[in-house]
Design goal:
- The structure holds 2 protein chains of 2 kinds.
- By secondary structure, chain A is of the alpha+beta class.
- Chain A has helices at 12-17, 21-48, 52-84, 88-98, 143-156, 158-161; strands spanning 103-115, 124-135, 168-177, 181-191.
- Chain A folds into 2 domains: 12-81; 88-191, Threonyl-tRNA Synthetase, Chain A, domain 2 (2-Layer Sandwich), CATH 3.30.980.
- Chain B is built from 8 helices and 12 strands.
- In chain B, the strands form 3 sheets. In chain B, strands 1, 2, 3, 4 and 5 form a 5-stranded antiparallel β-sheet that branches. Chain B has a 4-stranded antiparallel β-sheet with strand order 9-10-11-12, with no helix packed on it.
- Classes of the chains: A alpha+beta, B alpha+beta.
- The interface between A and B is large, with 75 and 78 residues.
Chain lengths: 196, 316
């Protein structure tokens, strides 16, 4: 048994023999088509690909973003340090304004103290401002009212209170020193804000 | 048995040549249009992307410039790298340099610098804290102006402040404080420190006026009257009743601190007119008689033995 497989047109020779101008035109068109497609294929890479300028800008942008990130990090650190800083000039001027006439201060102390149980890992430095003073009784106002009004004045003074929690009264004692008359000694403290 | 795979033989003959040409042309034009559109779209998209990227890039550059500018302002406000501001500091021991600096400010405000401790360095990540401790004695008003100059002009942070008054009647108080200078090793912050010339003239002339000394007993003050109160009471007799604690002479104005009150030429203090403000004295006039008020001498401050800490060490 014998099989013959023929893929070629059997009458090829006959068809080619009749090739004329129009057939040549077809062949030319097909050729032009192939050339055009190849041309498009070749140049399409250049067109569809991101332009070099765009890529360069993208890289520059990345560098700028990285630098901005670094600058922001340093700026955040400086902002934190600035926030931690207290302006004592403003606070002292505010203290002068807020002190009632019959009150005078004997001491002002701003220091850090350790809070938390001994041996525990939760020990923190808590800053506080301790103000001690004396109220001299006068006819106008009771000494305790003077202390209250002093504390209230401070509480209402934004520049003094910046970075501090509300004042807390620690102690009030009657005092009478020789040659200095009667007075009411007081002590209150202002804790530094935790987020400050 | 024979198998023939013949696909073209007859079909090719059946297709008319005109149709073939038309089909090829249509396909060719179609593909051309398709690719042209596609390329046009891609080109347009690239153009848009380029403009967008440029805008994003430019805004990022602007944001970076703003951030850097803010950083400079922030760094200047914090007074970072304090010692880099002064070229002479690089050749000196830091504690000695700082003592000279603080001493000059103290003298300016008639503040008595009682003690000044040498520098201690505390390293925290990419920055260091240079700590100094000092003690002064002065009136409340002078103390405020002294601290103001440290904080606003020198941009030095004041920490652990303690103010005590020696007696109820005394207008002189003691203050103990820590001064903190920030030194950054970050190259980004190099050159961002505030220069001496950056300080505006208005900052140099700023004088803080406090209404009252909160550490002074108001009732004791009546008994042991200070010159200012005596003047108010109309008992002025001679220039010795006045205290001249500061003179600030600049090209624009001359200001003297007389009895803890700021006075300019022509002002009347305690019944006396300020005729002239010189560098070291003030001339007053009352009832046609002139009197001179001189600046009081401030005692030279005492210092503890200083530890050597050079600028190079700080920079490292």
């Amino acid at each position: 048994m014998e099989f013959e497989i023929n893929f070629l047109p059997q009458n090829r020779n006959r068809w080619l023999a009749h090739v004329k101008g129009k057939e040549l035109l077809i062949a030319g068109l097909v050729l032009a088509f192939i050339i055009t497609v190849s041309f498009i294929g070749f140049y399409s890479k250049g067109i569809t690909k991101k332009p070099q300028k765009l890529v360069a800008i993208g890289q520059d942008f990345l560098k700028v973003s990285q630098e901005k990130g670094k600058v922001s990090g340093v700026a955040a650190l400086l902002s934190k340090l600035k926030k931690e800083r207290l302006n004592w000039t403003e606070k002292m001027a505010s203290l002068s304004d807020a002190t009632p006439s019959q009150v005078f201060l004997t001491s002002l102390e701003y220091s850090k103290e350790k809070t938390g149980a001994r041996g525990s890992s939760n020990i923190k430095n808590r800053e506080k401002l301790v103000i001690k003073g004396v109220v001299i009784p006068s006819g106008e106002e009771s000494p305790s009212s003077s202390i209250q009004s002093f504390m209230q004045n401070l509480k209402n003074n934004a520049s003094f209170m910046a970075g501090f929690e509300s004042p807390v009264l620690i102690s009030v004692n009657n005092s009478q020193k020789e040659g200095q008359g009667e007075g009411l000694e007081f002590e209150f403290q202002l804790l530094r804000k935790q987020d400050a | 048995m024979s198998l023939n795979f013949n696909f073209f033989e007859n079909k090719m003959h059946n297709i008319s040549r005109k149709n073939l040409i038309a089909g090829a042309v249509i396909i060719f034009i179609g593909i051309g249009i398709f690719f042209s559109l596609k390329f046009y779209q891609t080109h347009k998209k690239n153009q848009r992307d380029l403009i967008q990227e440029k805008l994003t890039y430019e805004s990022a550059v602007t944001a970076l410039a703003k951030e850097k500018n803010d950083l400079t302002t922030l760094a200047g406000g914090l007074g970072i790298n304090y010692f880099s501001r002064f070229p002479e500091a690089s050749h000196m021991d830091l504690s000695f340099f700082m003592f000279n600096r603080i001493s000059t400010i103290a003298n300016k405000w008639k503040v008595n610098l009682v003690s000044f401790s040498p520098a201690e360095k505390e390293i925290k990540g990419n920055y260091s804290l240079i700590l100094f401790s000092g003690a002064i004695s002065a009136s409340f008003s002078d103390m405020v102006n002294f601290f103001q100059e440290l904080e606003d002009k020198e941009k030095i942070s004041i920490d652990n402040l303690k103010i005590n008054t020696s007696s109820r009647a005394s207008s002189t108080h003691q203050a103990e404080f820590d001064l903190v200078c920030l030194e950054f090793n970050d190259p980004m912050l190099k050159g961002r420190e505030e220069k001496e010339s950056d300080t505006s003239p208005s900052d140099k002339e700023k004088i803080k006026i406090v209404k009252r000394d909160p550490f002074l007993n108001p009732f004791e003050k009546m008994q042991v009257a200070r010159p200012a109160e005596k003047n108010k009471a109309g008992t002025v007799d001679g220039a010795s009743e006045f205290s001249l604690t500061g003179i600030n002479c600049s090209a624009r104005s001359r200001v003297a601190i007389i009895n803890h009150t700021m006075a300019r030429e022509g002002d009347v203090i305690g019944g006396k007119q300020v005729v002239a403000i010189k560098e070291d004295r003030v001339i007053l006039k009352a009832n046609g008689q002139l009197s001179t008020l001189r600046l009081k001498e401030t005692p030279r401050p005492q210092t503890k033995e200083e530890k050597p800490l050079k600028t190079e060490e700080v920079v490292q």
